[in-house]
Amino acid sequence: MLKTGEWLSLSVLGLVVLFVFLSISFYTFLIGPNSEGPQRIIEPSSSFIQIIFLSVGPAVVLSFFTNAISRDGSKLSSLLVVSSGVILIVGMIYVSFLIPQVKHIELPLWISNTPLIFMGFGVLLFLIGVSKYRKSTQKRNTAFDSN
Question: Which helix (H) or strand (E) holds 54?
């Protein structure tokens, strides 16, 4: 049976995967069919803000929360957070290749720099997971030493 921290780490992984797929579909929509852009006039800032606040924002907050509440430091929980960071970094690298293909819409500066910003969050998730993993191995080693 999974513990609370493991369930929360699994939700972090799911939210990160959701963000990567939504970002890819968002930029693919902006590229449009045959690289002609969307057939409608859109304002991309508000749409992408919704994507951020529905997926990666809660993922980062939950990763901090899981790090704070998990006293036992499960290895599975930390590996899920590490993999979330790796998925976010790889996904944002892929998205950074999609941005130059958007030609018919002028993107705000913050949207065109989004992959760099969230690569930083991916590194943060990775480091949180690594620190949790180190804590869990240290606690297990001290438990074995005391016996």
Answer: none
Query: Distances from the Cα of 83 to the Cαs of 9, 19, 50, 95, in angstroms?
Result: 10, 14, 24, 18
Residue 37 in any domain: the answer is no
92, part of any domain: yes
pLDDT in tens, 120-147: 999 999 998 898 888 878 766 665 665 5
Helices (H), 70-113: 75-98, 109-112
**b vs e for 56-68, b when ≥16 Cβ sit within 10 Å of the residue's Cβ?**
bebbbebbeebbe
Q: Which of 18-22, 45-49, 50-54, 73-77 has the lowest mean pLDDT?
A: 73-77
Q: How far apart are CA 136 and CA 143, in angstroms?
A: 11
